[in-house]
Amino acid sequence: MVAQRGDAYALLGPLNSSSAQVEFESASVPPHLAAGVEALQNAGIHCLAGRWLVEGRPLAVLIDLSELRKQIPALRKTYQKQYSLLSDPSDALTGDALAFGQGVKTFLSGVEAALKDTQLIAHFHEWQAATSLPTLADQNPKIRTIFTTHATLLGRYMAGDMARAHEKLDAIDPAAQAEAYGISFQHGVECLAAQHSTVFSTVSSTTARECTALLGRTPDVLLPNGINVKRFEVIHEFQGLHQDNKNRLHEFSRGYFFPSYDFDLDQTLYMVNSGRFEYRNKGMDLCLDALSELNQRLKHTCSTRTVVFFLITNRPVRSMSVGSLQYRSMFQELQSIAKSVASEVEQDLIGELAAGRMADLNTLITEPTRLRLRRALHAWKREWLPPIVTHDLIDDASDPVLEKLRQLNLINLEEDRVKVVYHPQFVDSTNPLLGMEYEDLIRGCHLGVFPSAYEPWGYTPLECLAMGVPAVTSNLAGFGTFATNLKNNTEKHGLYVVDRDQRMYHEAVEQLTDQLYSFTNLSRRERVAQRNRAENLSQAFDWKHLIAHYEKAQEMALQEDGL
């Protein structure tokens, strides 16, 4: 956007002092923004003006809500009088949204007055930022507005509460449903913003259906989410990075599974599902049911393939389990012993070979080292199964993932071809078990599996593609629908799309099972080719291409009648 508009583009948001200290730099701003800052100051509202320290370094103004919060009771009453929307006095989020809206209105009025004949476009993202939009539309018609909902709030609630919510959109009373969930005010603000904006938009055709049914207006334009491909770009190195990080996952497998039993790591594929914990919305239930079917199919066909599936999310835990840490520690001890032995025999082995003799390695290992090896191997072996969860969950008995795994008997039996590692904490390099950044873990995997039941867009499969990792999505995810419309035969490009729109759950399970089984049967050469095509497909989602949709929205807003 900065490349497109330069300093004619600026961001407006609430001030968070702690993050602003490291993410924001005070700087002079153009006269029109300075006029907005002055309008805030004249109203007794503190703000910071400068640049956001991200790529492009866009201009930004951060509004301090401290003084504005004193007006929240009056703002609640005014909003109720104007729009018949009553907000909960104890709800800090709605209060801050109203306070921010008041600051936005003051700032934009100052900017608009300074611009004179230059048109001003204000783009609001989500209802929390848009409480002032209806008033601006009425009082400042020269300010053209764009409102983008990335997912309707009511749609999110419905998706988390009822199965196949997308099929029930036309059969519900949105206002009554919002009242039942206790979100009448938030839903009302979202409706007002959608109906009063010059241009109304959302991120995908999936969410557009939601908007039409729940907000009472069909979006004028879609603004699909892009990524900065450069962030993931490692020119010609992604195959090497995959190999390096896959070897780190092999190390994890040796430490996690091999004390109980071993399997052929050359025949092992790593798959992953990750994201915030929305068991049904994120398709975790579908993943586990399909993995169970895949396990049976691989056993029935006597496949030599092993699948290790990571499910990474964030759940309340007490700590990492003692057993998990012990296995990691013991494996590190084995590595230390192996290096010690290698160092011990190296010189003697070289001497024997130089003398033209075939060395007997047993004679080169000293008795103390032999004893150390025996003790380590004795401590290494265990008589119980590798755990399916890496942490001690606070609510182990009723955790949906564990309930499902136990129901399916997917508990890492030796004969199972599918092994599960449920990691209920997000990963980073400080993690004592995996010791990897999230991106490194993804690069080491062979397939990302994200068959969502509700996903307005869905970044995780797109990020996989950008790192050269094939992925599964669904046509209930905005990204999945967009990609399907963009490319024919997406599977050729490393993107598998599960049809979850008008199909029964068991049919989706069967289709995902087929896709996973097909993937396990690919040769190494075929997987490498698919990784190349996956990375190429991600290029289509770079912001340098998708910015065109934002340009279209701006052009629509600037037309004389707004549309």
Describe the structure.
With 563 residues, this protein is an alpha/beta fold. Helices cover 49% and strands 13% of the residues. It is built from 22 helices and 16 strands. The strands form 4 sheets. A 6-stranded parallel sheet has the order 13-10-9-14-15-16, with helices on both faces. The protein has a 4-stranded mixed sheet with strand order 1-4-3-2. Strand 15, helix 19 and strand 16 form a beta-alpha-beta unit. The longest helix is centred in the middle third of the chain and has 33 residues.
Distance, first to last CA: 22 Å
The total of beta strands comes to: 16
Envelope shape: elongated
Protein structure class: alpha/beta
Strand content: 5-15%
Strand sequence of the main sheet, in spatial order?
13-10-9-14-15-16
Mean pLDDT: 91
Residue ranges: pLDDT <50 for 5 or more in a row? none
Q: Could you describe the largest sheet, including whether it forms a barrel?
A: 6 strands, parallel
Helical content stands at: 40-55%
- Enumerate how many helices there are, as a single number: 22
Radius of gyration: 28 Å
